[in-house]
Description:
The longest helix has 27 residues, at 175-201. The chain has helices at 7-23, 49-56, 103-111, 115-125, 138-144, 151-165, 175-201, 225-234, 241-250, 254-268, 294-305; strands at 32-36, 59-62, 70-81, 87-102, 130-136, 168-172, 277-278, 290-291. It has two domains: 14-79 and 89-202, 3-Layer(aba) Sandwich (Rossmann fold); 217-305, DNA polymerase, domain 1. The chain has a six-stranded mixed beta sheet, sandwiched between helices. The protein has eleven helices and eight strands. One of its GO terms (cellular component) is Holliday junction resolvase complex. Residues 36-185 form the ERCC4 domain. This is AGAP002302-PA.
Amino acid sequence: MAFPLANPDRLKLQHHAEEQRNLKPGHCNKFLHAVIDPAFLREPHGAQLLPKLAELGCKYELSAQPVPTTITFYRTVPAKLTAAGAMTDTIVHEPFAVHLLDGCTLAAYVRNRQLLAAVRSVKEALPGRRLSLLVFGLVAYCRVHRGCVGRRETEQALTEVQLYEDTSHQLLETDEQVGNFVAQLARAIAERPYKQQQLDKYSCDQVYLGNEKKGCVRVEGTAGLQQLYQAQLIKIPSVTLEIAEAIMGAYPTVRSLLEGFRAAGPADGPHLLANVSIRRAGGPITTANRRIGPELSRKIYSLYGSTNPKQEL
């Protein structure tokens, strides 16, 4: 007879389930807020920004930032049940920011060798945040003002910013590109807790056994070991499902196969599987049996028995 959970325990389980659901991609976007400096929305670069964020499901608000044409982000964490039974709301400021420069301003910074100092000043005004630099309309500006700045010195200045200040940059020419970049960054920031959770979950020895991706085998305790053994054999070139089932019929586990190779020794080990019969799937019983053969047996022996990491099958 199952006893119903006490009310506090049931609330904790419900809250945990809801918390996990809110972390998942698609649900997490609605908890991310983009704080946009009004100057970022000026034409022409800001025309597509708000529609792209709205399409993503991300909330946004207009507020003057410490540095003009800058976007910062924060996350609202849903109400959490404390040990005392109270519900609290929290705000988590994300360590990322986007700063936009137009082509004219960037060209002037590069000519005067001031880009590194300008980026450093922006980072000092936004402590604790990793900066992404958006450069809008540089190509169009240079077409109109030929010779205003050299390509080589521009690339050198942007490389210095990346090396010394760990600041990435994007050269964009249309408002749609600006909107797409900010939306992509917002999505990545929103999904960061979920991806970090997945990384922590699979950062142990079970990472290859418990992967959730298509085609992988989940192993919990001893459940799934047979499927994993079969999947491992099928990965070997020329080993079909029928051949894998024949090997598993003779040696049901990887351990038994390895012990068979060891018992056979270096002389007979490569031929251990050569005479194992293969039955065609769905074929009549009278069908002539095939055998694994010496060449494939040698390859399987080399795969499981070789201690040379550079040996080719």
